């Protein structure tokens, strides 16, 4: 007979033992294939305070709301950004970004030809900012609130302080 009175197949292997071994083999092989297909899970390095130089474009009458010492908090209420100081740049540095004091999104190369892209931006405001950032082990780039930090006029970081909300672009890392 195929199964004897002790539950063994061909008198050698117990059915329960066979099921346990087959489940373990299936789970292990699935885990190996998933690991090969998906790769490793990214590990985050410890957070670090970075000093950066950033720029935002605002109307001249709103520049008074930007103050050294203003802080920003993440969605959980933790302090993660501070404006250290406002940086005075000469006219040539401003020209590099805006070709004077007024530009449009299209002038900066980030707009489209629709009506919204003609919204005039105003004066560049340069700041030294400290940000609580972390690094991802897979791409070795700095991240802030889920945004990857890139240098240039991509305006990828939104900041809300107690006195003002603005989008900023990173110019350079001052201290990493």
Give a brief description.
The longest helix has 24 residues. A hairpin with a 4-residue loop joins strand 11 and strand 12. This protein has 2 domains: 31 residues; 128 residues, no CATH class.
Topology:
Layout: E1 8-9, E2 13-14, H1 15-38, E3 48-58, E4 71-73, E5 79-87, H2 91-98, E6 103-104, H3 105-108, E7 120-121, E8 123-135, E9 142-144, E10 147-148, E11 157-160, E12 165-175
Antiparallel strand pairs: 1-2, 3-8, 3-12, 4-5, 5-8, 6-7, 8-9, 9-10, 11-12
Explain this structure to me?
The structure is a single chain. The chain has 176 residues and is α+β, with helices and mostly antiparallel strands. It contains three helices and twelve strands; from the N terminus they run ββαβββαβαββββββ. Strands 3, 4, 5, 8, 9, 10, 11 and 12 form an eight-stranded antiparallel β-sheet that branches. The longest helix has 24 residues, at 15-38. The radius of gyration is 28 Å and the shape is rod-shaped.
Total number of distinct structural domains: 2
Radius of gyration: 28 Å
Q: N- to C-terminal separation? A: 74 Å
How much helicity do the residues have? Answer: 10-25%
Query: Averaged pLDDT, please?
Result: 75
What is the number of strand segments? 12
Count the DSSP helices.
3
Which percent range describes the beta-strand content?
35-45%
Key words describing this protein structure:
rod-shaped; 36% strand; 176 residues; 3 helices; eight-stranded antiparallel β-sheet; alpha+beta; 2 domains
């Amino acid at each position: 007979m195929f199964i004897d009175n002790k539950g063994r197949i061909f008198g050698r292997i117990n059915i329960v033992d066979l099921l346990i071994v087959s489940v373990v083999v299936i789970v292990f092989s699935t885990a190996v294939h998933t690991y090969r297909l998906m790769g490793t899970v990214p590990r985050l390095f410890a957070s670090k305070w970075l000093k950066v130089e950033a720029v935002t474009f605002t109307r001249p009458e709103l520049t008074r709301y930007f103050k050294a010492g203003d802080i920003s908090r993440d969605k959980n209420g933790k302090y993660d950004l501070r404006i250290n100081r406002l940086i005075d740049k000469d006219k040539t540095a401003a020209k590099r970004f805006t070709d004077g004091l007024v530009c449009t999104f299209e002038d900066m190369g980030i707009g489209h030809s629709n009506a919204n892209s003609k919204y005039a931006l105003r004066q560049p405001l340069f700041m030294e900012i400290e940000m609580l950032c972390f690094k991802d082990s897979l791409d070795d780039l700095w991240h802030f609130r889920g945004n990857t930090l890139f240098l240039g006029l991509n305006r990828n970081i939104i900041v809300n302080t107690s006195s003002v909300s603005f989008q900023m672009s990173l110019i350079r890392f001052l201290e990493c």
